[in-house]
Amino acid sequence: MKYSSTYEYIFIDGDIGTVGISKEASDKIGDICFVELPKVGSKINKDGEAAVVESFKAASDIFIPVSGEIIELNELLTQNPQLVSISPLDKGWLFKIKILDNKELDLLMDADEFKKFVSMEGH
């Protein structure tokens, strides 16, 4: 699993990545009440806006950690967007992508680097 500086994660399985928001991002955003997901087949460049999650506090853009083509959406979120808050790393994933450039993964943080990053950010 790798993390971006904007608090998204990507779980890598071959050339497929499962993308969601980290527990730290979920805690910061609060109880999520709505999720707007991208369209299957969309190609989005690294750091491009891919989705939006809304809590009672605010809406937050979700950025794609590496360039990819959207191949699957977490359909459970249309009926139960709170899964992103309750289980961000398991049932609350957002979408799956076909990774277009594996070299971009090297620009992301591993779990230890992400923990250090978060603690430096003051979260």
The gist of it:
It contains 4 helices and 9 strands; from the N terminus they run βββαβββββααβα.
Tell me about this structure.
Helices cover about 20% and strands about 35% of the residues. It has about 120 residues and is an alpha+beta fold. It has one domain: RNA polymerase II/Efflux pump adaptor protein, barrel-sandwich hybrid domain (OB fold (Dihydrolipoamide Acetyltransferase, E2P)), CATH 2.40.50. It is globular. About 35% of the residues are buried. The model has no long low-confidence stretch (mean pLDDT about 95).
- Number of distinct beta strands: 9
* Low-confidence residue ranges: none
CATH superfamily: RNA polymerase II/Efflux pump adaptor protein, barrel-sandwich hybrid domain
What is the total domain count? 1
| Individual helix count | 4
Largest sheet: 6 strands, antiparallel
CATH first level: which class? Answer: Mainly Beta
CATH-level-2 architecture: Beta Barrel
| CATH fold field value | OB fold (Dihydrolipoamide Acetyltransferase, E2P)
Computed structural class: alpha+beta
